[in-house]
Amino acid sequence: MNELRQASDRAVMTEVVLPGVVEPAGLQIRQRPVPAPGPGQVLLVMEAAGISFAEQQMRRGKYFDQPPFPFTPGYDVVGTVADVGPGGDAALVGRRFAALTKTGGWASHLLVPAADLVEVPAGVDPAEAETLVVNGITATQMLHRVARVRAGQTVLVLGANGGVGSTLVQLARRAGARVIGTASLRHQEAVRELGAVPIDYRTHDLGAEVRKIAPDGVDAVFDHIGGEGIITSFGLLAPGGTLVSYGTASTRDIEGSAKWPVLKVVGRLQLWNALPNGRHAHFFNIWAGKRRAGAFRARLRADLTEVLTLLADGAITPQVAARVPLSRAAEAMTLAESGTVTGKVVLVPDTAGEGDHGGLGESLA
Ligand SMILES: NC(=O)c1ccc[n+]([C@@H]2O[C@H](COP(=O)([O-])OP(=O)(O)OC[C@H]3O[C@@H](n4cnc5c(N)ncnc54)[C@H](OP(=O)(O)O)[C@@H]3O)[C@@H](O)[C@H]2O)c1
Question: What range(s) does the Enoyl reductase (ER) domain occupy (predicted)?
């Protein structure tokens, strides 16, 4: 038995629990014995777990297919394997992997199917790698598998300062595209530094501003806002262009069904796609095709590996907004929802001096 396994056998784990529809302060911290992995599973010791927009929706009961309360949130994670289940590959122990979990990542230890692990290149900081798991997969698949953006094209990225948006901007620039990015005033400079032409969507008419830069329209729009604004997004496409819708952020705070806003957008897109208007419209869902598990995992592994390799090579810059200890998830969530951050707020393990972490500002990356 190796040292990591011995340590985890003795350990008590910490996890964050979302008990129901609550404010961030209502998140609970729970401790329990570290579980043993079953067949096909590994025990991962968390080194970094992301706070995504999905958790902002989940705490409001507004994520499309969230599990029933209570549950541990955490869409993605980077960690080191401490143990493998019966018959598992012992060579995995001690190595660092990323995993897309949808839930469960906000924990010091978690069980993950071994088949879902994607190796993190040596020397890459776990929190930096973490910012590119769900964000990197989403951005690269939308860019290259859905919109098929090519050099010389112009694309519009809504929310260009966000986790997915800041990754999209960088990948699109690498692909040789000109990028227009929307963000509120305080994020304009950060978006410019990423390589996009920023537009303040809050104080300016988005359509008019985009037309000034691209009078014939753009080749792709990446829209996570949804709602009625999706009509503007589709209208900004050049002939042959593609609208990729991938969320309904504008409906986060509207009470009611979690599913209806998405279904409404999907219906609209299907109609636009069917009409002979020379433009394309798709809804991207990172979980599409999951039933064909082998092909799904192979695609995800290939795409995430490519993004993590770009990170290791210094070809893209990770956007770590802050590193916050796991037991302070409530503060981390409040920060993520504050509208003040560029990139991703990342939860990291509690240090030896648990419960005495100083001000949150000290955790800022
Ligand atoms: N379909 C999929 O498979 C999939 C996968 C991953 C993520 N997503 C979606 O991707 C989106 C981004 O996720 P994330 O984790 O990157 O979020 P994030 O880091 O919180 O970024 C969200 C961005 O959206 C902007 N924003 C938020 N609410 C807005 C509103 N009502 N109107 C205009 N802009 C708004 C924010 O900009 P300001 O602060 O400047 O307002 C921010 O830049 C979410 O909607 C999420 O659900 C979908």
Answer: 26-347
What does pTM read for this prediction? Answer: 0.94
| Nearest atom, ligand 1, residue 283 CA | 1
Residue 107 DSSP one-character state: B
Q: Which of 237, 234, 159, 231 lies closest to 200, judged by CA?
A: 159
Q: Is the CB of 162 under 6 A from ligand 1?
A: yes
- Please work out whether the CB of residue 62 comes within 6 Å of at least one atom of ligand 1: no
What confidence score (pLDDT) does residue 6 get? 56
- Ligand 1 pocket residue status of 159, Cβ below 6 Å: yes
47: which residues sit within 8 A by CB, 6+ positions away?
78, 79, 80, 96, 126, 127, 348, 349
Q: Kind and range of the H or E element at 130?
A: helix 126-130
Q: Which domains does the chain have, with CATH numbers?
A: 3-131+318-363 (3.90.180.10), 135-283 (3.40.50.720)
Mean pLDDT, 10 residues at a time, over the chain (365 residues)?
55 96 98 97 98 96 95 98 98 98 98 98 98 98 98 97 95 98 95 97 93 97 96 97 96 89 95 94 97 98 98 96 97 95 93 45 44
Q: Which helix (H) or strand (E) covers residue 311, if one does?
A: helix 293-312
232 lines ligand 1 (CB under 6 A): no
Q: Are 319 and 131 in contact (CB under 8 A)?
A: yes
Cis ω before 70 (30° cut-off from 0):
yes
Question: Is the distance from the beta carbon of residue 247 to the nearest atom of ligand 1 less than 6 Å?
Answer: yes
Give the separation between CA 180 and CA 196, rounded to whole angstroms. 5
Counting from 1 in the atom list of ligand 1, the atom nearest the Cα of 163 is 16
Cβ of 224 less than 6 Å from ligand 1 = yes
Q: What is the dihedral of CA 189, 316, 111, 104, to 10 degrees?
A: 20
Q: How far is the CA of 159 from the centre of ligand 1 (A)?
A: 6
Ligand 1 mean position to 25 CA, how many Å?
22
